[in-house]
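Human: Can I borrow your eye for a moment on a structure tokenisation matter? Separate attempts, laid side by side, tell us more than any discussion would. Could you pick a protein and write out its sequence and tokenised fold? No explanation is needed for now; the record alone will do.

Assistant:
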Amino acid sequence: MPGGIERTRELRRKRTRKQKLTHLKSKLGKATPSEKTEIARKLRAMTPGAEKLIIDWQLGEADR
């Protein structure tokens, strides 16, 4: 089976996604409105739970 066991790949994707989310959240404090829009776009591409994160991180007004 190329690439290893599916569960291992799934866990690796989850860890990577968590690291990316942490990185984006750390940038959020100094972000300009256009950067916040870009962060919201990246969140939508990265995770299916993006809309909840956008609301929690208060990116809704910057995104629209």
The chain has four helices and no strands. The radius of gyration is 14 Å.
